[in-house]
Amino acid sequence: MKPGTRVYVDGPHGVFSMDRRQAPGYVFIAGGVGVTPFVSMLATMRERGDVRPVTLFYGSPSWDEIVLREQLAELEAALPNLTLVHVLGRPDPSWTGEAGRISAELLRRRLPAQFRRYEYLICGPTQMMDAMEDALVEVGVPPARISSERFDMV
C-alpha cells in the first residue's frame, strides 16, 4: 500500500468483559493463549484498585509454555485478591501444583466458598471451553453466570 491509502478496519465484535458482568467476585478459566484477555482484565483491576476476589485457573502444557508467565507473576504479586491456579498438562517431576486438566473435581476443591455468586469467564480452545461450561454446571454454577470468548466465528 502507498502512504495515504484509505483502509477500512472491522471489529472487534465481542463483548467479553468483566465490566459487562458485574459481580462480587470472578472466576476466570483459561487455556493457552486464552489467558490474554484475563491478563488485561487483571491489569485493569490493578489500575482501578479493584479488590473483588478473583480466581484464575490456567491450563498450560508445561511451565515453559505458560503464555505471559512474567506478567501473571507480576499481577499475582500486585493483587492480593487474586488466586492463580496453574494446571500443567505435562509437569516436570519437581512440580507441586495442579497437574492434568482443569476438571470438575479440581474445581470442587479449589473454587472459592461463595462461588455460586461469582461470574465465570472462559477463554481458550473450543474443546476446553465446552468441557469447562459442562464442569461448572456440574459443580453447581448457575449457567446464566457463565460466559465464553470463542476464537472462531459463530
Structure in words:
- It is a single chain.
- α2 links the parallel β2 and β3.
- The two termini are 31 Å apart.
- The chain has 154 residues and is of the alpha/beta class.
- A six-stranded parallel β-sheet has the order 4-3-2-1-5-6, with helices on both faces.
- The protein contains four helices and six strands; from the N terminus they run βαβαββαβαβ.
- The radius of gyration is 17 Å and the shape is globular.
- Helix content is 29%, strand content 20%.
Could you list some keywords that capture this structure?
154 residues; alpha/beta; six-stranded parallel β-sheet; 4 helices; 20% strand; globular
Per-chain topology:
Layout: E1 26-31, H1 36-48, E2 54-60, H2 69-78, E3 82-88, E4 98-99, H3 104-110, E5 119-123, H4 126-139, E6 146-149
Main beta-sheet annotation: 6 strands, parallel
Task: Please tally the β strands and state the result.
Answer: 6
Q: What is the rounded distance between the termini?
A: 31 Å
Spatial sequence of strands, sheet with the most strands: 4-3-2-1-5-6
Mean pLDDT: 93
**What is the percent of helical residues?**
25-40%
Class derived from helix and strand content:
alpha/beta
What order do the SSEs take from the amino end to the carboxyl end, as H and E? EHEHEEHEHE
Number of helices in the DSSP assignment: 4
Shape: globular
User: What's the gyration radius in Å?
Assistant: 17 Å
How much beta, percentage-wise?
Answer: 15-25%
- Which regions are unreliable across 5 or more consecutive residues at pLDDT < 50? none
